[in-house]
Design goal:
Structural class: alpha/beta
Radius of gyration: 28 Å
Shape: globular
Distance between the termini: 88 Å
Strand order of the largest sheet: 9-12-13-8-7-14-15
Largest sheet: 7 strands, mixed
Helix content: 40-55%
Length: about 500
């Protein structure tokens, strides 16, 4: 079946109203959960094939994360799908004010290769929960995982509503020519621009989860041994092929000396004397990325690591020093196990350097100094911040995850994922009450100054005025008025 025919069938399926049914969505999400639970060993194997990812990393960063994500969605779905009742103003106190959570329609989700299951299927689950039909495009750069998704999804999910298309640049280009109702892309900024431009042709809303050079500031007040472990883990997990990995460190020369001392000890503890022989280190995804990373090391002052092996696509955990802001290693997101250190004297210098660059996806601050922490947080812009740890904010489902500017647009995770794939349809419900009609009649011609004055007063915003207890006050007032009327009638009859 051609790509255009596949997309058209998804539009037909959505038009049938099938995915709007909350019970249907719930059943499909439970099927997705069952897919995860019944195939977790195979998922770990394909991740090992593509990235030589260790079982612990596979479960912690992808498989268990996806399982918990779907479980959370299922438990909250009915509440999220309900129409929302926002606050009402004085002028609408007698009206119904509602927000309906409408699915967009047919959604395209384009996955990435670095976490090829998680960054593909987590947004898919959110799009399903919101009631959309979904076309899934896994990354061809992780072929074993792509094949697994393409072969396994049809066994568990409704094939009319959820389809998978494999392929490379040709297939992705063809997909982007089609008319979708929302596009969700995870990957590089270069391709993100292409996706954004293609979406603009059809005025299609899109979510772009990109990346950037995420800075990591350390000052002398931090617990350096603990900070070093947390930074090294965030940098070297998945061989640094993580969009929110610390991309470079900002610190003083004194802190750098302490950091390097601890880093040597930590690397020996984690990976032994020869990291290449460790089963816990992933490999670079392909030859192209290996060569790109190897070229970054040329001319650098390597303080730790720097070893490479082209046959294995292996690069050892590497830290380089004496780095300047205009050095080659500081031009693009590294996306590999190389950590540059730039020396700054204080938080003010760090802020100046961070703000001279594109807005990053993440920022890390290691400090016990709350004043300096607040100074950096308040005077920089980024997708998200984690203080005294790395990457932990990604796992907090109550926090939105997404970039800003060159690091992306839009956000997801938890309820924010549901909202990303949902159109908030506003609805005002008026009645035919004579009282309401009398109050509103001043809007009708013929116009006059007295009508304008009345409408201005009626529509005026009133600070500190809450309508929360207004219905009770009105009922009380009507009760008192009714009592007085009855009392008057009785007295007249007597």
């Amino acid at each position: 079946m051609s790509i255009s025919d596949t997309v058209q069938k998804l539009h037909t399926a959505f038009a049938s109203g099938k995915t709007r049914n909350v019970e249907f969505r719930e059943k499909q999400l439970k099927n997705l959960l069952r897919m995860y639970e019944e195939n977790h060993d195979q998922m770990a194997r394909v991740l090992a094939q593509d990235l030589r990812k260790h079982k612990q990393e596979a479960y912690l960063m992808e498989i268990d994360y996806m399982i918990n994500d779907v479980r959370s969605i299922i438990s909250n779905l009915r509440e999220w799908a309900k129409p929302e009742k926002p606050k009402k103003t004085f002028v609408n106190m007698m009206d119904g004010v509602m927000i309906y959570n409408d699915p967009y329609g047919v959604v395209l989700v384009i996955g990435a290769w670095n976490y090829p299951l998680q960054v593909t299927l987590v947004p898919v689950a959110a799009a399903m929960a919101a009631g959309n039909c979904v076309l899934i495009k896994p990354s061809e750069v992780a072929p074993a995982t792509s094949k697994f998704i393409a072969e396994t999804i049809p066994k568990y999910l409704d094939q009319e509503c959820y389809r998978v298309v494999e392929g490379g640049v040709k297939e992705t280009s063809e997909l982007l020519k089609q008319k979708f109702d929302h596009v969700f892309y995870t990957g590089s900024g270069r391709v993100g621009k292409i996706v954004h431009q293609a979406c603009s042709e059809n005025l299609t809303p899109c979510t772009l989860e990109l990346g950037g050079k995420s800075p990591c500031y350390i000052d002398s007040s931090a617990d350096i041994p603990i900070a070093t472990k947390r930074i090294m883990w965030g940098k070297f997990v998945n061989a640094g092929q993580t969009c929110i990995a610390p991309d470079y460190v900002l610190c003083t020369k004194k802190v750098q000396k302490q950091f390097l001392q601890e880093a040597r000890s930590v690397l020996k503890e984690w990976y032994g004397e020869n990291p290449r022989q460790s089963p816990d280190l992933s490999r670079i995804i392909n030859e192209q990325h290996f060569q790109r990373l190897s070229s970054m090391l040329k001319g650098t002052n390597t303080a730790i690591g720097g070893d490479t092996n082209a046959d294995e696509k292996y690069i050892s955990p590497t830290i380089v020093v004496d780095v300047k802001n205009n050095d080659p290693v500081m031009q693009d997101e590294i996306f590999g196990p190389i950590l540059p250190i730039i020396n700054v004297e204080n938080a003010h210098e760090a802020i100046e350097l961070i703000n001279s660059r594109d807005k990053p996806l993440a920022m890390y601050i290691f400090s016990k100094n709350e004043t300096d922490r607040d100074l950096i947080i308040s005077n920089t812009s980024c997708g998200g911040i984690c203080v005294n740890d790395t990457m932990g904010h990604f796992a907090v489902e109550s926090l939105p995850f997404g970039g800003v500017g060159p690091s992306g647009m839009g956000a997801y995770h938890g309820k924010y994922g549901f909202d990303t794939f949902t159109h908030k349809k506003s609805c005002l419900v008026k009645n035919f009450s004579p009282v309401g009609e009398k109050l509103a009649s001043s809007r009708y011609p013929p116009y006059s100054d007295s009508k304008l004055s009345f409408l201005t007063t009626l529509l005026k915003k009133r600070q500190g005025f809450s309508l929360k207890f207004l219905p009770y006050a009105l009922m009380f007032g009507l009760g008192v008025a009714s009592t007085m009327i009855v009392k008057t009638i009785v007295e007249r009859e007597n």
